Amino acid sequence: MSTRVIKTKAEHKRALREIEKLMSRPRLSREEREVFELLVQLTGDYENKNFPPQGSTAAELIEFLLKQNGQPQKALAQIFGGETHVSEVLHAKRSIGVPQAVKLGRHFHVNPVVFLELPRS
User: Fold this and answer.
1) What is the pLDDT of residues 73-103, one digit of tens each?
2) In 108-119, which positions are buried (b, 16+ CB within 10 angstroms) versus exposed (e)?
């Protein structure tokens, strides 16, 4: 997989497939982890440019995905280290770190970058 700026829908789709492959592995080498992080950033940049956010926060997105998947909040307890932490995330009292974003991406089968509240340029 080439790691360069994503400019087309086809490149975006290929990058997402590669992210999924990397996410399915139990362990990544340092080089694979670096490629993964770069692909997540590149796909996030492409998506932010071509699919502007609609103003949803990470918490709102998680609530939506839970509802769409028919899951209770406690389904995410293992990701955040307990039901209390899930509640704190959903009430914007606790932020989502990269490790949790990756786990959420795996859980919901979406690009993990959508859970990170990155500064907008």
Assistant:
1) 999 999 998 999 999 999 989 989 889 999 9
2) beebbbbbbeee
Count how many Cα atoms sit within 13 Å of the Cα of residue 9 in the half-sphere of its side chain: 1
For residue 28, with 0-12 CB atoms within 10 Å meaning exposed, 13-18 middle and 19 or more buried, which class applies? middle
pLDDT in tens, 21-42: 898 888 889 999 899 889 988 9
Which pLDDT score is estimated for 51? 67
d(CA 68, CA 6): 29
Domains and CATH numbers, the chain: 1-52 (no CATH), 54-121 (1.10.260.40)
CB 66 within 8 A of CB 72: yes
Among 3, 29, 19, 18, CA closest to 106: 19
Question: What gap in Å lies between CA 44 and CA 14, rounded to an integer?
Answer: 14
pTM of the model: 0.56
